[in-house]
Amino acid sequence: MSGRFITFEGIDGAGKSTQIESLVANLRARRLQVEQTREPGGTPVAEKIRALVLHEPMHLETEALLMFAARREHLAARIEPVLTAGGWVVSDRFTDATYAYQVGGRGLDAGKFEALERWVHPNRQPDLTFLFDLEPAIAAARISQSRNAGDRFERERNDFFTRVRAAYLARAQHHPERFLILDATETPEAIRVRIEAAITERFFK
C-alpha cells in the first residue's frame, strides 16, 4: 500500500491529541509504518521555529512566512521521505491550520497565503483531514482548566477563535473530498469510532 498522509485540525481545546494517539496505535496494530508529528514543528529546525511563532510577538506576515518555512523543512526532512517509502504520516495540523489561524484569525491576505501554499507544497495535500469542530466558548473553558498559561494563540479572545472556526469550516466546504467534520462535543469513544470507520472505509476496503 502506498503511503498516506492524515491530518487533524481544529481550534485549540477541541480534543485532537487523544484521538491522534488512538489512531496511530490503531494503524501500527495493522503493521503499518506510522510517523506521528505536528505543525509547526516535526524536525529540530521546525521545532525552533515553533518556539518563536508560539511565544514571540511578530507581524502577521512574518508569522505566516515562518509557518511555511517550518512546513517546508518538515516536508523535506520528514513527511515526504516517509510517504515515498510507503509509510503513513499522522500530523497534528498542516496548511489548513495556517489558513484558519493566519487568514481567518489574523486577517492575512488570502492571495499571499495561496502563493505560499503553491510554492511550498504544490503537489501535496493530506489524503484525509479530520476537523474537530467546537464552539469557541467550550474550547476556552477546556483550555482554562489546564495548569499552564498557554501560548499566544491559546490566550486569544473568543472572537479570534470564532473567525478561526469559520475559516476552518469554509476550507472544509471548499475541499469536501478530503475533510471529515467531527462534532468535538461528542464523547471521545464516539469520536474514535467515527475516525476508525472513516479510515477503514477510505483506505482498507
Low-confidence stretches: none
C-alpha Rg (nearest Å):
16 Å
End-to-end distance, in Å?
12 Å
Q: Give the proportion of residues in helices.
A: 55-70%
Strand adjacency order, main sheet: 2-3-1-4-5
Alpha-beta classification? alpha/beta
Question: Could you explain the architecture of this structure?
Answer:
The chain is of the alpha/beta class. It is 57% helix and 14% strand. Helix 3 (60-84) runs parallel beside helix 5 (110-120). It is globular. It starts with a strand and ends with a helix. The model has no long low-confidence stretch (mean pLDDT 93).
List its salient traits.
14% strand; five-stranded parallel sheet; 57% helix; alpha/beta; 205 residues; single chain
Offer a concise description of the structure:
With 205 residues, the protein is of the alpha/beta class. The chain contains eight helices and five strands, in the order βαβααβααβααβα. It is 57% helix and 14% strand.
